[in-house]
């Protein structure tokens, strides 16, 4: 009997791709949305574990409304902090591997070179603080079987995201002003899903050290550079995309100016990091285009 993988937040953009990858590889996968298992409720989580006896849990459930978290930090903390804590306790009791998806927002965003996995954290937003709380709960509760995978700038066909928005706007706007003072790594959810499944398999095999990994694409760019590449793939003139600064788009939660993450820890697990963002975007683009221009 094959090991069972439980995916929380299975209806989300990343969760959909994790499930698709598991099914595609012939692995036993269980999708758990909030109705099936509330990760903030210990009784609900225990019932889910009793029912499915998972060998691996991939926690894609999260409060991702970054700006709303500024005024609703307690609610965000319940999902992003308490939820992983409850899952980690259940995983400890059942001998289960936990893959906790986290974020670049746990850093201050003021670095000038890629953040290594062991870099000091310093979140500047409520969202970042709540996600860091979840990280700490997992690493403290599961020192041998807890894995934190930080990611950033996610896009995919299974939900709203920056790429789909830019595809839509290209068709209705003559020009677009896009921020050029925030730097990061656009990451395709299908690529991250593959990385998560490989990491979980390595964890079960005992070949991947527990701890923090960075699940972002190789290379780096700004939102402005990202949008120009999207326009190029559309066959549109990239010059229609104009650079601007973050001051032009003031939001409740501060955005990290620098979100580039280092990938050194994959080598210890015998795995290659995620490929370059341009290569991934080119492969992902047909499906993304169909979602906006059927």
UniProtKB/TrEMBL annotation:
The keyword NADP applies. The keyword NADP applies. Pfam families: RmlD_sub_bind. Residues 6-285 form the RmlD-like substrate binding domain. Its EC number is 1.1.1.133. GO terms for molecular function: dTDP-4-dehydrorhamnose reductase activity. Keywords: NADP, Oxidoreductase. Pathway: Carbohydrate biosynthesis; dTDP-L-rhamnose biosynthesis. It comes from the Bacteria. Belongs to the dTDP-4-dehydrorhamnose reductase family. Catalyzes the reduction of dTDP-6-deoxy-L-lyxo-4-hexulose to yield dTDP-L-rhamnose. PANTHER family: DTDP-4-DEHYDRORHAMNOSE REDUCTASE, METHIONINE ADENOSYLTRANSFERASE 2 SUBUNIT BETA. This is dTDP-4-dehydrorhamnose reductase.
